Amino acid sequence: MKLLSLNLGRPKVSEHTDQPERLTGIDKRPVDGPVRVAAPGPKGIGASGVAGDAVCHTRHHGGDHQAVYAFAREDLDDWERELGRTLASGAFGENLTTKGLDVSGAKIGERWRIGSEVVLEVTCGRIPCTTFQGHLGEKGWVRQFTRKGAPGAYLRVIEPGEIRAGDPIEIAHRPDHEVTVSFQFRAVTTERELLPRLLAAGDALHPEAIETARAYMARQS
């Protein structure tokens, strides 16, 4: 398992974002590194946990629980076959393009050691938006991506440090519960009856997903 590509985004104007400045950092491109990774601060204040990476809409993106976004090269390859087009590493706006790692099959609270310094913890899956759809230029993309159920993972920074393309990835801890990234994604999108089971992931789960699960349970009682 390794970090195949480390990708950073620069602010670009887009007609597909509802941010007043019309800027997005979703167009991420590979860099060699080293690049520092550290907790950016609370959502709404903190941006990306990857130095030099742009997060332009901090209301919905960035912050400690979405500090880093990872997507598997194997899943990009699968999308290439389905869409009939080439998808470069970083094409989905991911900071980390991994190889040999089942990103959407990772468990919430799973910890990855990247290189010799950095430890990240899985918090949730990525929810697709119209900016993502506009960036790819695929009609009906939000629905298509959601149906696949392999959203890639957001991670928080447990131990900061520097990473670079080619660094090995080791699973340092894998929790003993059923809540994978794909499971969490399906629970908050298409299979909401799964929401109560998300709480088995504990505090490692993104706070917004915890709130959604608890609200659902309150309505059912």
From TrEMBL:
Residues 1-33 are annotated as: Disordered. PROSITE patterns: MOSC. This is Sulfurase. Residues 29-172 form the MOSC domain. The lineage of its organism: Bacteria, Bacillati, Actinomycetota, Actinomycetes, Kitasatosporales. It comes from Streptomyces flaveus. Pfam families: MOSC. One of its GO terms (molecular function) is pyridoxal phosphate binding. Residues 12-31 have a biased composition (Basic and acidic residues). InterPro entries: Benzoxazolinone_Detox_Enz, MoCF_Sase_C, Pyrv_Knase-like_insert_dom_sf.
